[in-house]
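Technical annex, item 7. During the second reporting period the consortium partners agreed on a shared format for inverse folding records so that results from different sites could be compared directly. Each record opens with the tokenized structure and is followed by the designed sequence. A conforming record, contributed by the partner at site C, is shown below for reference.
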């Protein structure tokens, strides 16, 4: 199987790259350890795909990257996650600031259903207390970046819940982009969508990676090949919690991995 690797975009003018790194991350739910010694660095303006079978801790790790793991009452975490060299758990950054700079798009589209499309896009800025001088301009820009503007520009005052599933997911991406994040986390954003909507979301990922760092969890190996520059293969086996078997350029993991388990997984022999 041949993989055509995407090229990383040039750094956006006037904006330094955000360096996101995880060092020896371990995670628990109560006494159940679900992640062990995960260390990964995410290249700015690249798409990194987290792949692996269900139950190996990919989504838990993703949520740890912007402090959503701690919302579970029994959750525990050790290790460090740094944004531009500052530990997001212990370095003095407010939780709201962490989640503004490191945004999240969930598996199931979750727009505010009765809120208008216009207000949905702005809702993140309101929750984070960001002042917006040109609200209409920000809404248009965010919807354009999410690939939705042309479809909704004449009905911005209609409820977000009236959109199709794929459009709702792009609305959620627009909402996340409106707060100007440096990193965008995406937890299986296409798993509930039809092929046409999936293609459009993938095009959006390719476009926004020119401006933000993207980390995506996906079980779709073809999607990982299409959208990512790098992959990290997670596995939980033989009594060991979820851990990274190997990470590197997407083309290498699919065509010439170092570990035979990686080859078996990406070519559908298990998982």
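Designed sequence (site C submission):
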């Amino acid at each position: 199987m041949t993989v055509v690797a995407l090229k990383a975009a040039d750094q956006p003018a006037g904006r330094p790259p955000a360096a996101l790194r995880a060092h020896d991350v371990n995670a628990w739910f109560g006494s159940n350890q679900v992640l062990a010694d995960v260390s990964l660095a995410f290249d700015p303006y690249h798409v990194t795909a987290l792949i692996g079978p269900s139950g190996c801790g990919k989504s838990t790790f993703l949520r740890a990257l912007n402090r959503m793991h701690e919302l579970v009452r029994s959750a525990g975490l050790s290790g460090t996650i740094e944004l531009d060299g500052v530990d997001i758990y212990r370095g003095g950054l407010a939780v709201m600031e962490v989640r503004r700079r490191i945004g999240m798009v969930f598996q199931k589209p979750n727009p505010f259903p009765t809120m208008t499309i216009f207000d949905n896009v702005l809702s993140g800025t309101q929750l984070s207390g960001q002042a917006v001088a040109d609200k209409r301009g920000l809404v248009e820009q965010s919807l354009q970046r999410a690939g939705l503007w042309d479809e909704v520009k004449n009905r911005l005052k209609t409820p977000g819940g009236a959109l199709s599933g794929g459009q709702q997911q792009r609305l959620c991406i627009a909402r996340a982009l409106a707060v100007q994040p440096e990193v965008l986390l995406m937890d299986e954003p296409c798993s509930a969508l039809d092929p046409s909507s999936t293609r459009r979301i993938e095009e959006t990922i390719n476009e926004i990676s020119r401006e933000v760092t993207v980390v995506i969890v996906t079980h779709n190996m073809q999607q990982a090949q299409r959208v990512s520059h790098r992959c990290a293969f997670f596995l939980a086996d033989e009594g060991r919690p979820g851990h990274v078997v190997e990470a590197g350029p997407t083309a290498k993991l699919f065509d010439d991995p170092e570990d035979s388990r990686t080859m078996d997984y990406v070519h559908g022999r298990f998982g």
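Strands lie at 20-29, 32-42, 47-51, 75-83, 86-87, 102-105, 183-187, 213-217, 230-237, 240-249. The mean pLDDT is 92. All partners now use this format for quarterly exchanges.
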